[in-house]
Write a structure and sequence with these properties.
12 helices, 2 domains, globular, alpha/beta, two-stranded antiparallel ribbon, nine-stranded mixed beta sheet
Length: 281
């Protein structure tokens, strides 16, 4: 285990390993006034969108499926408003994982969560924010924002950003600097189709990412949506492609990671960061 952790730490320090962050990264994020945990996992998001009530078992299977059902009944704006109400709230605490990653000064992070925690952590230094978008009439499936260490400025294309700046990629959306969301099945079908076609990643990043390795943190790989996202985001990775820190990974996760060239490590991210293990909030 020490050897694996040493390899990962060395790769992170060299800027050659890209964190790919999932819902469990927010396990310790709570609301400053209510003490509630931030909705992040599939079940938590479904309950948050449905007034705290569970939905039918077939809809509880995965958040995009449940969000599609709500969209069909109440409109896409109902889902978007709910996500903005959750994640635009400024009372959420900072995740321990965000604090640790911020201290590493990494050049590229992929964050599947829709919160602003990493953006807040990076708010004091220049970076490029890439946000996924979907279901538009033609065009690319991302928006670019340049942060100068003070505020974001929208960029029409790559000429408006510094290609050497650190990159924070938020495929599923964020409320800041403007709300954009990938949530329902229809959103993901459109986004992943364009991702597979090469229209959801800026051309300069396609070049910059060649040969990089990846580190899956806080993500279970049991569901198709996250598996398809991961497979496309690590395209053109080095060999091996990297590591997935998954405590108690099941056979399905192990087979999938082996197919992608990812080594499964039976560990929590806090072990890698030399931080004490805690119970999820």
């Amino acid at each position: 285990m020490t050897t694996v952790f040493d390899q990962i730490r060395a790769g992170l320090a060299a800027g050659e390993v890209v964190p790919f962050i999932g819902a469990d990264a927010l396990a310790d994020v709570t609301h400053g006034k209510t003490g509630a945990k931030i909705p992040a996992t599939s079940d938590e998001l479904i309950l948050a969108l449905n007034n705290g009530q569970p939905m039918a078992p077939r809809l509880m299977y995965e958040f995009p499926r449940a969000a599609m059902n709500i969209e069909l009944k109440r409109g896409r704006n109902a889902v978007n408003r709910a996500l903005e109400n959750i994640y635009a709230d400024t009372e959420w605490s900072r995740a321990g994982l965000h604090e640790w990653l911020n201290g590493l000064n990494l050049p590229y992070i992929i964050d599947l969560n829709r919160d602003t925690g990493l953006q807040q952590a990076w708010a004091s230094h220049p970076h490029t924010l890439i946000v996924g978008i979907a279901r538009i009439a033609g065009g690319l499936r991302y928006k670019l924002f340049s942060h100068d260490g003070t505020a974001y400025t929208a960029a029409r294309d790559e000429s408006g950003i510094d290609p050497a700046a650190p990159i924070l990629f938020k495929p599923c959306g964020t409320p800041w600097p403007e709300p954009n969301w990938i949530a329902s099945d229809a959103d993901f079908v459109d986004y992943i189709t364009e991702l597979m076609g090469g229209f959801a990643i800026p051309p300069y990043l396609k070049e910059r990412r060649k040969g990089l390795r990846y580190l899956v943190l806080g993500a279970r790989l049991n569901r198709d949506t996250i598996r398809m996202l991961l497979a496309d985001f690590i395209y053109s990775a080095g060999e091996p492609a990297g590591w997935a820190l998954i405590p108690g990974a099941n056979d399905k996760e192990k087979r999938f990671c082996a197919h992608l060239g990812l080594e499964v490590v039976d560990a929590d991210w806090r072990e890698l960061a030399d931080m004490p293990l805690i119970e999820a909030a």
